């Protein structure tokens, strides 16, 4: 979906809503948030006539609910040659790290920073 397509959807919704106080549907917010991967927040808010503050609130709300880190357990007595697979999934994207168990400790600080 392009920003222009979404702008047309917002225009259509605004013209058909019952009152100006009617909240923007979550489906439109989610589409706007999805565009933030390719467009700046300022551009999206300007084009769609959205409040920057509300955009940030909804972006945090929808982003936080879709993110998690899955770390497979490591056997305490695992041989040093055994590999560990770590899968990260967020926003329909997936990153799989496959590394020796002895190297896992070196990436844990990066995970901690992501969660802050």
List its salient traits.
116 residues; 3 strands; 2 domains; 17% strand; 3-stranded antiparallel beta sheet; elongated; alpha+beta
Structure described in brief:
The protein is of the alpha+beta class and 116 residues long. Helix content is 53%, strand content 17%. It is built from 5 helices and 3 strands.
In words, what does this structure look like?
This protein has 116 residues and is of the alpha+beta class. The chain has two domains: 3-65; 68-115, no CATH class. It has helices at 3-16, 26-34, 41-48, 52-66, 101-115; strands at 68-71, 83-90, 93-100. The chain has a three-stranded antiparallel β-sheet with strand order 1-2-3. The chain is elongated.
Q: Give me the Rg, rounded.
A: 20 Å
Q: Could you state the order of secondary-structure elements as H and E?
A: HHHHEEEH
Q: How many beta strands in the DSSP annotation?
A: 3
Characterize the main sheet.
3 strands, antiparallel
Calculate the terminal CA-CA distance, rounded to whole Å.
Answer: 31 Å
The fraction of residues in strands falls at 15-25%
Tell me, rounded to a whole number, the average pLDDT: 83
